[in-house]
Design brief:
mainly alpha
Length: 72
């Protein structure tokens, strides 16, 4: 699976969690990926396009996907 698709799935999971469905909250993701809340929140809120996300952030979200979603 390509990185952009992985990132989109992690962001979607955080959006669903924001609406009360799921365990992958933005808070959990940022704590595990070790970046600031604001880094992911703008993508979760739809204020920024994931296509413009920095590579470092995208790679960390890809790793998060591999750890939590790949085997499910």
């Amino acid at each position: 699976m390509e990185l952009k698709a992985k990132v989109a799935m992690v962001i979607k999971a955080a959006q669903e969690s924001k609406n009360g469905a799921g365990e992958h909250t933005a808070y959990r993701i940022v704590k595990e990926c070790e970046f600031s809340q604001g880094t992911i929140q703008r993508y979760v809120d739809g204020k920024s396009d994931i296509g413009r996300m920095g590579l470092d952030v995208a790679e960390k979200l890809g790793e998060y996907f591999d750890k939590h979603f790949e085997n499910k």
